[in-house]
Design a protein that fits this description.
The chain contains ten helices and no strands. The chain is an all-alpha fold.
Amino acid sequence: MKMKDIVRKHKRELQKAQRSGNLELSRKAEEDLMQWAMDNGEVNTDDEDDFIDWLDNNLDDILKGKIREMNEARLSRKEQIIADAERKLNFKIKELQYLKMKKEMEAEGLWANIHAKRKRGERMRKKGEKGAPTQDAMDKAKAGSQPGNTSTSEALKPTQKPMLKRVKARFPRLKPGTQEEIVMLVKPKGQINSKRFVELGQAYDKMDMKKLDQLIAKYSKEDK
């Protein structure tokens, strides 16, 4: 018999014992509780004193339904093991995702940013125009896009580069080129544009890439 069934069967008697502190129960109630306690390893002998001690220590929990069956405890342990394994697996997956993202960052950069702008149909800044990358940066970016080479973020100003780390953390799934573009849009003149950062973040959280691209295009147009 399960504990919940025992409690339901002898509830009034158990409540009376709880209020009065008198643990003398009817023979049937005592037998049911003793049998449960022995079956679940709570009492290991048929000594009445051991049973009374166990009942005295656990009567409140018995009435509150906090006493667990042995099978439930085993199941709980099994669930805990599964949960721990899932946490370790998720951590490993995130670690692999990070390493993949890091590798992509090293393979992309300014050149990827240029391709992304062209794909969106945006006008590229002309040579010598404010905010346009230098020829040296272009050459390094082209070299970085080739297998075996790494790219740089030469398009970013020194005051913008610290912001790149924050953008990467906020928009981890975006390509490095897009992340750099966001840096240039949210910190165009050395000061962070919080409104833009928040709006881009909201679109990203909803995974609304269309909205994100629209905002990037809008801000790029405003900065021209």
